[in-house]
Amino acid sequence: MLIDDEEKLRSLLARLLKLEGYAITEASNLKAANKAIETEEPDVILCDIKLPDGSGVDFIAQVKQQHPLMEIILLTAYGNIPDGIQAMKNGAFDYITKGDDNNKVVPLLSKAMEKVQLQKRVQQLENLVGKKYSFESIVGESKALHAATALAEKVAPTDTTVLLLGETGTGKEVFAQAIHNRSHRASKPFIALNCGAFTKELLESELFGYKAGAFTGAIKDKKGLMEEANGGTLFLDEIGEMAIDLQSKLLRVLETGEFIKVGDTKTTKVNVRLITATNRHLLEEVKEGKFREDLYYRLNVFSITLPSLRERKEDIPLLADYYTRIFAAKTNRKIKGITNEAMKLLEAHYWKGNIRELKNIIERAVILEDSDQLTATVLPYDLQNDLENTTISFELSIIEKQHIQKVLQHTGGNKTEAAHLLNIGLTTLYRKLEEYGISK
Questions:
Q1: Collapsing DSSP states into helix, strand and coil, what is residue 306?
Q2: What phi and psi, each to the nearest 5 degrees, are found at residue 104?
Q3: Which of 3.20.20.10, 3.40.1360.10, 3.40.50.300, 3.40.1190.10 would CATH assign to domain 143-307?
């Protein structure tokens, strides 16, 4: 957008910028400019400093407050340095003198446009991340899930330490991220660490950092994740796996906000919200002397138990459909849904691995499926057995169909190899596939 009351100069500059490929909106005063901004939403504004109905310097502050991603370059006929300084303070991208700096307009405009596009991209990514890791993104309508979500939403705006309980694969990290994103720390880091993935020594270094020379190979200082998460949230998964002497160091952070790096002599202060998770019974661990009682009570200020998938079976169709759509899009497959037979298998399964197990099975099935519906033939053997065990049939046709499905799964869908293993002709196999409605 060009804002200048000198029509000839404005038209000349507009023609020049159009030749550079820019779409131009013109305004002769601030009133017209304000009206056009709301409809045109320009990326960059070139604005004269002196206009009939106000100052371009003051205009900058107003625009940046309402449209922070827009960039403004101030045009002045006088090269007034105080005006230029104030313009920069008000949020201007830069300022140039008319006539003297004509050769600078296009390169400066290009830089401003690059900045706007980058800011827009960052905002899009932040919105995507915020949407992905929000309470609204948690799939399910069961009472058990709603109860857990309601508790998480209540505690999210506070700085209270949260302990997430539940079996492996129930979505504890997703809940931790959603709690962080709903808190006042959302703009600060969220860092996750699995305590069970490291030895005691490595976990201490990862968590608290170290000074150069603290041990062999420590050639320079390293920040720990506790320090990296300063101002934000640190999520410690499998907290029950942490060694007892490291637990005392973690307790000190909770009580004082301080810790000592490996090999250091002075303390480091941090302001971190702690969310922990475990699939263990920590109270039993306390009784057995494997977990500090004082730390347990500091972590268990506010606990939330996430339901297993077996406790929320009504959510299985929703989750299965959700992951089918996600992985179909990722693998560029035109899979529109799940057959009734396949869904019955999913609903009958025990789901010891919970949502993580369901997600992995759907991803594999999407890769194997050739039709536009996810069929039973691409699901694992144990799911087939679940349904067989609950609905035993003595009909030869049903047993034959199930056997063909298993053989096809074994061959990865290779019909020629399946026919060979079944000791029948390929034509016969295709006839049976059609007869039983098995996906080709």
A1: coil
A2: -95, -15
A3: 3.40.50.300
**Cα-based angle 245, 249, 252 (whole degrees, multiple of 5):** 140
Instruction: Classify each residue of 306-337 as buried b or exposed e, where b means 16 or more C-beta atoms within 10 Å of its C-beta.
Output: bbbbebbeebbeebbbbbbeebbeeeebebee
Domain ranges of the chain: 2-128, 143-307, 310-436
**Can you tell me the distance from the alpha carbon of 422 to that of 407, in angstroms, rounded to the nearest whole number?**
8
Number of residues in the chain: 440
**Cα 291 from Cα 243, distance rounded (Å):** 8
CATH no., domain 2-128: 3.40.50.2300
Question: Do 143-307 and 310-436 agree at the fold level?
Answer: no
C-alpha 187/C-alpha 175 separation (Å) is 17
Between vectors from CA 227 to CA 223 and to CA 233, what angle results, nearest 5°? 140
| Best CATH choice for the domain 310-436 from the list 3.40.50.300, 3.20.20.210, 1.10.8.60, 3.40.50.720 | 1.10.8.60
Report CA 131 to chain centroid distance, whole Å. Answer: 7
Which ranges of 257-353 would DSSP assign to H, the alpha helix? 282-287, 293-299, 316-330, 340-348
Tens-digit pLDDT profile for the chain (440 aa)? 999 988 888 898 899 889 888 999 999 999 999 999 888 889 999 988 888 998 888 888 888 888 888 999 888 776 666 666 777 777 888 888 876 666 788 888 899 999 888 887 766 655 555 456 678 888 899 999 999 999 999 999 999 999 999 999 999 999 999 999 999 999 899 999 999 999 998 999 999 999 888 888 778 888 899 999 999 999 999 999 999 999 999 999 999 999 999 988 899 999 999 999 999 999 999 999 999 999 999 999 999 999 999 999 999 999 999 999 989 988 888 898 999 989 999 998 889 999 999 999 999 999 999 889 999 888 887 776 655 554 444 567 767 877 887 788 778 788 888 888 888 888 888 888 888 777 65
- Asked if 151 contacts 291 with a C-beta cutoff of 8 angstroms, the reply is no
Q: Which two tokens stand for residue 217?
A: 């190979």
Interacting residues of 77 by C-beta distance below 8 A, sequence separation 6+: 48, 49, 50, 97, 98, 99
State the DSSP code for 336. Answer: -
